Every structure is written in structure tokens, then in C-alpha cells.
Amino acid sequence: MRGGIMIVRLTFKRLTTRNSHTMTTNHIDVLLVGGGIMSATLAILLHRLDPDLHICMVEKLDDVALESSDALNNAGTGHAGYCELNYTPKNKNGGIEIRRALEINAAFEVSLQCWSTLVKEGVLNAADFIQRVPHLSAVWGEQNSAFLRQRHALLKAHPLFAEMQWSNKPATLTDWMPLMMAGRQQTDHMSATHVAHGSDVNFGALTRQLVAYLKTRANFTLLTQSRVSKLKQQPKHNAWQVHIQNLVSGQSQSYHANFVFLGAGGGALPLLQQSGIAEAQGYGGFPVSGQWLICNNPALINKHHAKVYSQAAVGAPPMSVPHLDTRMIQGKPALLFGPYAGFTTRFLKQGSRFDLAKSVKFRNIKSLLGVCRHNVDLTKYLVKEVFQGHEKRMDALRVFMPEANSRDWTLAHAGQRVQIIKHCHQHWGKLEFGTEIVASADGSLAALLGASPGASVSVKAMLDVLERCFGSRMQSQAWQDTLKSLIPSYGESLIDDAALLARVRRDTLTTLNLSS
């Protein structure tokens, strides 16, 4: 049983049906739309839980992980709440809320555990996708420094953040981030927090490793240069009839899938709308683009080894929190600053400029109008970001690096993010900057919408999909044992169990070479 629905074992064979024209129908258990980190993670979990499941992954581009999971299209930060100040907002009483930071940290630990297990089994090579890069938060001004010190005290009191350090001493800050301290005035009242075992994750490389392993399995099929052209539920069977078109030949094939996962980044929303499930009502998308300044001076790249985050500008979306960022891209160290947010009508980097217009439906028009009405300042901010020149972008960088030289930096386009718009009784619609799973009541379809923390919590997010859509099977002892072997803390709380946290963190930091 899955979510109260009987799963029928189907062999991966071709059946021919005849109507006005003949189309071959492929019967599969699981169809994954999108070849990014989310689909790859769900595929690896399902394969381990039931190796007999026939899984098909569909990717529109030439290869997997070329959109949102690609190295330049995301922050590459192993989001754990160490450096991201937007995860610890102030409440209406002036206090600092840390619960979200704790939850994200614990969720990232789940990903680390799963990756560690796969590294031990030889499925993954840690050196090819994850690197130890310290995580820092840096602020300027007395008021901001007071906030950061209070945040540090609250977080450090919890075992998840026990190793976080805080300092306002110029010598310590110079040791942590020498490029940012060069030429800086001592009157800046600068302070920072530091976590040594932070990480840089190349989610594109990770995705390709996972898919390469899956392709060696008999029951896994990858269809690249292909798109879903039609998606329709068959109510009698609680299954889905899906037409997939090959973009090279133009030919289409029909698939009968018991379960469909829409993990296509910005491409998930249009397919969710096409599905017609009641749970999709009111959902829309707010696309946001991004750009990076990339350093082309090797001497500067070698002087900085950290991910340093600060506070977003007033009116800026959380995804545009500025950071000076050490990255490993194509096996080489890189130094990026940004991202600079902007407005776009595309839902994917290689999408259509008509994506936003096509997403406007009768079922979400009220939500969209509500968001437009209450987010005028955000729209103005994004439009302004689009039209700023190179020197204006350099001015933002010089807040971080006072001695930054324009000639050392070039502009590159980052990925697209489609933020969630959903129904809200009070304002008609609300804009949310997060990650959300939308699933049908019968458990036959699920979609992942939104952005940050996204890829970093991919394992936890896909476990949530399994619990919502494969509920009955998730309760079986066999599945529970398999998940426990992959993720030692599965079913327990890393937030509440300090001893468990100590054990799993010691293991993951060692296995993934993140220990100092």
C-alpha cells in the first residue's frame, strides 16, 4: 500500500494500444521530471528502498544538472544556518528567533549522513563534490554587531552550533578573511562569526555522480533532450498518463506511471498546474534572476578561503543576501561575489520569456494580484538591480572588499529561481521564500516548489515526499531498516539528542573530509 493506494507491480514492457493512431505505452512505477539534485536524490532513495521499482527520469537539456543544480546557477553553500542571517530573524519584540536555523542545520546533517553512507559504499567520491570551506557571517556598525553577538550567544548554546566563534578583534578577523580586512577603517565596528567545518557543495557534480550510479541499475532509465508534453491522471487507476516528446526527433511516447514527481525547478509549476490536482489551486510563481561577479585574479582567489555572508539590502529577497564566496568549480578554486538579484519573466535560465504569462490561470489570479499589490517595493528593487552598471556592482563588493579593483572582476549570469506564490485569506496571496512540497491527496503526484535552502536539504525534502506519498510502505520494517542504514539518525531528532548529534557529526565530518 502507498498512502492508502495499492501499488501494482508492473514490468517495464511495451504495450500497444490502437486508436486513431498507434502509440507505444511504457508502464513504469516512478516518473521523475527534471534531472537535478532533487530527482536524483529521490531516485536513489527509492532504488534503495525497492530495487524492483522501474524508475524513469526525464530531462529537457542535453545532460542532467545543467539548470538549477549547476555550479554557477546556485550558491554552492551547504546551507546549515551557520552564516545565513536571514534564517535568524528578529521577532516583533526585538528578540532573535533561532528555530529555523536549528531546523535547517539538522536537515543539512541528514544530507551529510546520506552522502557519507554513499561515499563509504563507493557510490560517491567526496572529493569531487564537497569541500571544507569555513562559514562566516560579517556585519558592520555597532547595532549590527550587537545583533550578531546576541545571535552567536543564542546559537552557540545549542549543540548544533557549539563550535561557532564570534570576534570583533581586527587580528582575528584578518586571520579569518584577509581580503576583506585589507584597507578597512578600524572605525567600521566590524564583527563576524566563524564555523570551521562549513562546506562548499557542487550540486551539479553530486547529481551527476548519483545519476551515473543509477544508470548502472537495470530498472533505471534516463531520457535527455525530452520534455513532458501532456500530463493527465487516470482516476480509475490513480495513475498518470504522460506523453514525453523527444526534442531532437519530435516523436512522442506514452508512459503510464504509478507515481510522478515534478522536480524540474522553475519548470515544476506549469506541470503542476497542468496536472489539475486540487492541491495546486492558488499557486503561482515569482521569478527572480541572479548574477555573480567572478574574480579573474588568481592571487586574490588564493588569499580568500571562506563563505562570508552579510545582511541583505532593505527590500531585497533572501536569495540575494550578499556573500564573498570561495567555490570549487570544475575542480578549480574560484571566488564569487553576489548574487545580484533581478527581475525576469523566465522560469528557467534556458526557459521562455513567456513563462510568467503562461502561468497566470483562473485558479491563481487572485493570489497573483494579492502579491503584486503588497510587493511593489520588491518589484522596484529587482528592476533597479537589472539596470545597474559594473561600477555600481563594484560599489557593493567594496563594502566587503575595500580594495577591490574593477579589472579583477567580470559578470556572469546565475540561475533562475521561482519563488512561491500561494493563496492567503488576508491579502489574497502571499510570497514565500522557501521550499515547499505540494502533493495530491492520493499520493500519486508530488511537486517541489521554491528555492532556498533547496539543494542542501534535498535528502530531508525527499524523505518528506516519501512520507506523504508512500505512507504505508514507509511504515514497513524493511523500509525503516533501509533508511536507518542510509541515515543513522532517521526517525530521531538531532535538535533534541546531543549525543546522537555528536556521533553522526563525527562520522560525517571524517568521511566527507570536513574536519579541521
Automatic annotation (TrEMBL):
Keyword annotations from UniProtKB, A to Z: FAD, Flavoprotein, Oxidoreductase, Tricarboxylic acid cycle
Signal peptide span: none
Enzyme Commission no: 1.1.5.4
Pathway in which this enzyme or protein is active: Carbohydrate metabolism; tricarboxylic acid cycle; oxaloacetate from (S)-malate (quinone route): step 1/1
Catalytic activity field: (S)-malate + a quinone = a quinol + oxaloacetate
InterPro entries named in the record: FAD/NAD-bd_sf, MQO
Family: Belongs to the MQO family.
Annotated NCBIfam families: mal_quin_oxido, PRK05257.1-1, PRK05257.1-4, PRK05257.2-1, PRK05257.3-2, PRK05257.3-4, PRK13339.1
Name of protein: Probable malate:quinone oxidoreductase
